[in-house]
Amino acid sequence: MDDLLELSERLGVDFRDYSLLSRALTHRSYLNENPSSVLEDNERLEFLGDAVIDFIVAAYLYHHYPEMDEGELTSLRAALVRAETLAQFARDIDLGTYLRLGYGEEENGGRDRTPLLCASFEAVIGAIYLDRGIETARALVESLIRPALELIRAGALHKDPKSEFQVWAQALFNITPHYRMVASEGPDHAKTFTVQVAIGEDVWGEGRGKSKQAAAQAAAAEAILKAESTPANGK
Q1: Is 184 a domain residue?
Q2: For a 10 Å CB count at each end of the chain, is N or C smaller?
């Protein structure tokens, strides 16, 4: 119980039913290795929390950026609710410390794995929503998204390099860029991927990331830099 009280204080939420928070912290790997446990895993709470976060973020953006069109609002929302951002929110509140994981998952670095942290953060928000209502959940989510939003906007991190490069390539060459993975390194739970983006046979960019999608985005970002220094005829 002490860990639940400590986390609730960190969250700034006084739970009525701490079993909800306990469930939010319980990964299915823990139950697989402890079949006699009376706990449930956090996957249903994750499902609920995902929807709650989407709503809170969309409402926040709608009310705070009345001048923005739907396209940019959508891009900002996507940047705020993507797995990497939600996992960073989990790290900000040290959520990994409180998770109940199976031995194998913990040995594989589960307490800092982005997908697991993202899912656990969503589950915690789902638990807060059920226990204390939407306004308490909103207060916590908004306190985390405000500084993240400043960084995202300052660095234009909500822009999608793959989409931007595709528009440029199709306008100039009438060809859709294609991506190929050229390397993967590291153990299964912590791989780093290298992806190249090409137009026809010409490689325009190469990027690395912890997922194939992240590596592809990095490759597209590098390609955009090259494209910006390329004359209009592409030569």
Answers
A1: yes
A2: C
